[in-house]
Design goal:
6-stranded antiparallel β-sheet; two-stranded antiparallel ribbon; 2 helices
């Protein structure tokens, strides 16, 4: 994941997306995700990407506001998200893995 621009969210571009997989995701559209919410933007105006909010964020591109599908919410260790954001900002992209609890 990488930190883009001056907002408190991490984004990762996705090179390939199976749109059938995307279709089953709960459609909870969000442009202002809360810390710990993870959004999937399937592409269109901007590139396909995943966004992890770690602070206040307005999900947008140069073309305007974007809405992503909220599909995962982190519920523990949220206090560590700003630290992750700073690590990505200063040290670059980091590997990430999602696992079921």
């Amino acid at each position: 994941m990488a930190n883009h621009y001056n907002r408190e969210a991490l984004m990762s571009q996705i090179r390939q997306v199976n749109l059938c997989w995307v279709a089953w995701l709960a459609i909870w559209i969000a442009s202002y995700p809360a810390p710990g919410q993870i959004l999937l933007y399937p592409g269109g105006i901007s590139e396909t990407e995943i966004l992890l909010a770690y602070g206040g964020v307005h999900f947008a591109s140069k073309m305007g506001q974007l809405a992503g599908n909220h599909f995962i919410t982190l519920t523990s260790r949220l206090e560590r998200l700003p630290e992750l954001g700073k690590t990505v900002l200063y040290k670059g992209a980091q590997k990430v893995r999602f696992e079921a609890a």
